[in-house]
Amino acid sequence: MSRIVRAAAIQISPVLGDDGSGTARKVCQSIRDAAERGVKLAVFPETLVPYYPYFSFIQPAFRFGGEHLALYERAVVVPGPVTGMVAEAARETGMVVVLGVNERDHGTLYNTQIIFDATGEILLRRRKITPTYHERMVWGQGDGAGLKVVDSAVGRIGALACWEHYNPLARYALMTQHEEIHCAQFPGSLVGQIFADQMEVTIRHHALESGCFVVNATGWLTDEQISQVAGDPALEGPLREGCFTAIVSPEGKLLGTPLTEGEGMVIADLDFALITKRKRMMDSVGHYARPELLSLLIDRRPAQTVHAYGAATEPGGVEALS
């Protein structure tokens, strides 16, 4: 018998100017709204909580120090109050939730994707492996430990953020783990229509190549928020359009109508029989692979600042490295 999962890609605006809790409350309300429509998997945009660092795209680095520091103060600690709120909403609704956050780990911020199971348990916390262009002044780099597919209440889920989808080896790392649903996240309200066009090509290609569903969520800024972020009408243009919230089948077909402006949800029923139908023809990590010719080496060890070998104790009980 075929298995069917109802999924929602949620396009949503952040709450700007508060401590970040406002956006988290919007996320939890959206989870409950989706549950009323029978949704069992909800995917939210890239670094939605507290908000994507749009300021870094339109300002030179030497000018956005104050806004960068404000993002530090509003960023999410994992685990912490925000993850607790979302975990409770996931548990209450029996829903799997994929959420993008700015994660603070002591003195560094990361672009982090969190997968909550329907029990509220955090199944995966992964960090974007290479921030893109302007983002490198805001976030640190992730590592291979996050290139992982996890078993959830709705199936095997993998996730990548934004231009990680242009790293074919990162995508292949997830494909080899047989992801059934790929959760993609982009910032939205950025670059213009070309960003949305490129996004569509990217997520439809991954669905075809991997033989899985892709649920893609982008953020949205209102006109008022664009003015607030830009601070200058001349800088507003780069913060418009660039939204493409959509769900794609393993055959590369758009399920439902993509959302390119405003807040809302794209909801679709994912029929897992389509995965087998696609992979019968082309399984890129199975019968269509040539491992004796082409293979992938992955270092899944978490990055560590300190490697202590042969710790010895000096007089006074102080450990020294030998």
Automatic annotation (TrEMBL):
Signal peptide: none
Protein family according to the UniProt entry: Belongs to the carbon-nitrogen hydrolase superfamily. Nitrilase family.
Protein name as it appears in the record: Aliphatic nitrilase
Pfam family, one: CN_hydrolase
Matching CDD domains: nitrilases_CHs (cd07564)
Taxonomic source organism: Gluconacetobacter liquefaciens (Acetobacter liquefaciens)
Residues annotated as domain CN hydrolase: 5-272
GO molecular function: nitrilase activity
